């Protein structure tokens, strides 16, 4: 799912950026019957106040 924003002006930094990334070398997922355990094979990469050039997640479309 993508969210599209139409902004007028200049973007200098990303205030908050997060990605869910699969960890390398872990075994396949096996469901536990007593608790939610589906994300052991993933980690969240979270960054704050990222310069726009260093941001990992972005789609920029110029409309000028």
Please explain how this structure is put together:
A two-stranded antiparallel sheet has the order 1-2. The protein has no helices and two strands. With 64 residues, it is mainly beta. The chain has strands at residues 13-22, 42-51. The mean pLDDT is 80. The protein has one domain (1-64). Helix content is 0%, strand content 31%.
Task: Give the structure's gist in a few sentences.
By secondary structure, this protein is mainly β. It has strands at about 15-20, 40-50. Helices cover about 0% and strands about 30% of the residues.
Identify the notable features of this structure and list them briefly.
two-stranded antiparallel ribbon; elongated; 64 residues; mainly beta; 2 strands
Which percent band covers the strand fraction?
Answer: 25-35%
Distance between the termini: 26 Å
> How many β-strand stretches?
2
Overall number of structural domains: 1
List SSEs in N-to-C order: EE
Q: Average pLDDT across residues?
A: 80
- Which structural class matches the secondary elements? mainly beta
Main sheet strand line-up: 1-2
Number of helices: 0
Low-confidence stretches: none
How would the global form be characterised? elongated
Radius of gyration: 17 Å
Which bin fits the share of residues in helices? under 10%
Largest beta-sheet details: 2 strands, antiparallel
Topology:
Elements: E1 13-22, E2 42-51
Antiparallel strand pairs: 1-2
